[in-house]
Amino acid sequence: MSCIFCKIASGEIPCKKIYDDQHVLSFLDINPASKGHCLVITKKHYEKFNDIDPEVLVSLIKAVQLVSKKIEAELGPDGYNIINNNGSSAGQTVAHVHFHIVPRTEGDGIIQPWEPTSPEGSELDELQKRLRIENGN
Questions:
Q1: What does pTM read for this prediction?
Q2: Contact by Cβ (8 Å): 97, 52
Q3: Which of 11, 39, 63, 87 could be 24's S-S partner, Cβ–Cβ 3.0 to 4.6 Å?
Q4: Among candidates 76, 87, 5, 103, which has minimal Cα distance to 50?
């Protein structure tokens, strides 16, 4: 097993646990963007979000919400980012599903991940047609 998050989930590498259940583990990031920056990972190895078993996905999203609420209650940030990157081109540096919860304060200097664009209306219409989901399909 060479995945660092799998090693953390198995206890081979120690972490500062925040939350732990059957499917999910949350811990403090050792290279935080801000005070209280946490990671929430699946215990089972899934490389990308779309690979996750639906039962595990429910636990993962619930844990993200629980940890976010705890950060908000205990640290009182002005806001927080919930970030999930999928694939190296999207900034995923560990090929194991994980969410970052980054507490934010006004003027903290943390850079947002993109600059907004202004697509043409016809482009938006075409994208809507291609991506629209009807009746859950």
A1: 0.91
A2: yes
A3: 63
A4: 87
Beta-strand pair 79-83/38-42 = unpaired
Residues taking part in catalysis = 98
The tokens describing 68, both together, are 């976010």
- The pLDDT score that the predictor gives to residue 137 is 66
Name every residue whose Cβ is closer than 8 Å to that of residue 33 and which is 6 or more positions away in sequence: 100, 102, 110
The yes-or-no verdict on residue 112 having pLDDT over 90 is: no
Strands 98-104, 17-20: pairing is: unpaired
Confidence (pLDDT) at 1: 64
Distance CA 6, CA 31 (A): 18
Q: For the chain, what are the domain ranges?
A: 4-131
SS (H, E, C) the chain: CCCHHHHHHHCCCCCCEEEECCCEEEEECCCCCCCCCEEEEECCCCCCHHHCCHHHHHHHHHHHHHHHHHHHHHHCCCEEEEECCCCHHHCCCCCCCEEEEEEECCCCCCCCCCCCCCCCHHHHHHHHHHHCCCCCC
